[in-house]
Specification:
- With 193 residues, the protein is an alpha+beta fold.
- It has one domain.
- The chain is built from 6 helices and 8 strands; from the N terminus they run H-E-E-E-H-E-H-E-E-H-E-E-H-H.
- It has helices at 5-19, 64-68, 86-103, 136-139, 159-168, 170-179; strands spanning 25-29, 44-48, 57-62, 73-81, 110-112, 123-129, 140-142, 148-158.
- Strands 1, 2, 3, 4, 5, 6, 7 and 8 form an 8-stranded mixed beta sheet that branches.
- Strand 2 and strand 3 form a beta hairpin.
- Helix 5 packs across helix 6.
- The protein starts with a helix and ends in a 14-residue tail after the last helix.
Length: 193
């Protein structure tokens, strides 16, 4: 699959654009800088504006699959937010580097941020989950040469929620989040634990 790196990035972008028909979509080429650039040489963060599929902004990676695919399979990530902000582009690039730089994220994994996802928020971790807001039509992205990218959701959560997940499991946390009817784009939501 080594010859499909750039076509795969383009295919992910085309898939996202097709899914979000009627939304503005900007591809932001992200240079991680010296020493990191080689890990994700084709990284883009697709910034999707509000539209027919919802009033939130979406930030989608394109380039993780190319860096990490195994047997034609790999991941990309989507996060939703209440506004357009460079901070979210930076967070998605940081997540992509974390994933491709050795931590290999997957469904039910999490990543500590070391700070709130937005200033003043109690959410300081990112939880990798199914893309419930968008469904399987976004999640499953066929790629050239028979490859497949799975686009997983990145949900900002609190440290207490991550601790709850460690004790009770991913599904138990998802149940709590669902029962509390959280608004995933609300930056100052209360912890459900």
């Amino acid at each position: 699959m080594s010859g499909t790196r750039e076509p795969a990035v383009d295919a992910v972008e085309s898939h996202v654009r097709a899914f979000f028909t009627g939304h503005s979509v900007e591809a932001v080429t992200y240079d991680l800088g010296p020493g990191r650039r080689e890990v994700l040489p084709e990284l883009r963060v697709l910034v999707v504006g509000p539209g027919p599929r919802g009033d939130a902004w979406a930030y989608v990676t394109a380039g993780c699959w190319s860096a990490m695919e195994r047997n034609g399979r790999g991941l990309e990530f989507v996060m939703t937010a209440h506004v357009r902000d460079q901070r979210f582009v930076d967070l998605m690039a940081m997540l992509a580097y974390y994933h491709c730089g050795g931590h290999r994220l997957d469904l039910a994994h999490s990543m500590p941020l070391g700070e709130p996802w937005v200033p003043g928020s109690t959410c300081d971790h990112l939880l990798i989950s199914l893309p419930y807001l968008h469904g399987p039509a976004l999640e499953h992205c066929p790629l050239p040469g028979g490859g497949h990218a799975r686009i997983l959701w990145v949900l900002p959560v609190t440290r207490a929620e991550i601790e709850y997940r460690r004790r009770h499991g991913h599904e138990a946390l998802e149940r709590l989040l669902d029962e509390a009817r959280i608004i995933p784009t609300a930056p100052f939501r209360a912890s459900v634990v």
